[in-house]
């Protein structure tokens, strides 16, 4: 079975960055407050994609609890789901915005590995149930227009393809070497 992620490897190493770390610029109390405010659903990228899809005439359900992983966007008519993943939290392989915090590295490594394993499990479960799965990475809205994103999703839905990952590899902003 093909998974989108491989938790046994460090994806950033493929792009010559090793464990790209970011320095924390705020104190622990401020960082804790900031992290507590991060939304798990209805994020800005998710709302932008939903709005563009709705404007294009698509109708869908959101956060369907009966499906593994509560997909962000569900198209029952097409038996297709979309996850809008944040590059940092879901570890977008090779992405500029998929950095590693330098403080408490062991905690973050475990947290990220759990997120990736959960994502892989949810995708596998959805596929076993006959659902088609798309991953729209947060950075896709930074490297391509909403119209390009909607067109790619529309083509994916109409052509009955099994999976879709946006942005495509040639549009990914990679670490510089």
Describe, in plain words, how this protein is organized in 3D.
The protein is an alpha/beta fold and 177 residues long. It has a single domain (41-171), classed as VSR Endonuclease (Endonuclease, Chain A). Helices cover 37% and strands 13% of the residues. The protein has six helices and six strands, in the order E-H-H-E-E-H-E-H-E-H-H-E. The chain has helices at residues 28-36, 44-55, 87-90, 105-128, 140-143, 146-158; strands at residues 21-22, 73-75, 80-85, 100-101, 132-137, 163-166. A four-stranded mixed sheet has the order 2-3-5-6, sandwiched between helices. Strand 2 and strand 3 (80-85) form a beta hairpin. Helix 2 (44-55) crosses helix 6 (146-158). The two termini are 32 Å apart. The model is unreliable at 1-19 (pLDDT under 50).
What is the approximate shape? globular
Order of helices and strands: EHHEEHEHEHHE
Count of beta strands: 6
Count of alpha and pi helical runs? 6
CATH 2nd-level architecture: 3-Layer(aba) Sandwich
In what range is the share of β-strand residues? 5-15%
CATH superfamily: VSR Endonuclease
Radius of gyration: 17 Å
**Biggest sheet descriptor:** 4 strands, mixed
Oligomeric state of the chains in view: single chain
Low-confidence region ranges: 1-19
Given this structure, which CATH class is correct? Answer: Alpha Beta
Query: What is the topology, as strand order, of the major beta sheet?
Result: 2-3-5-6
Let me know the average pLDDT.
82
Distance between the termini: 32 Å
Helix content: 25-40%
Structural class by helix and strand composition: alpha/beta
CATH T-level topology: Endonuclease, Chain A
Tally of structural domains: 1
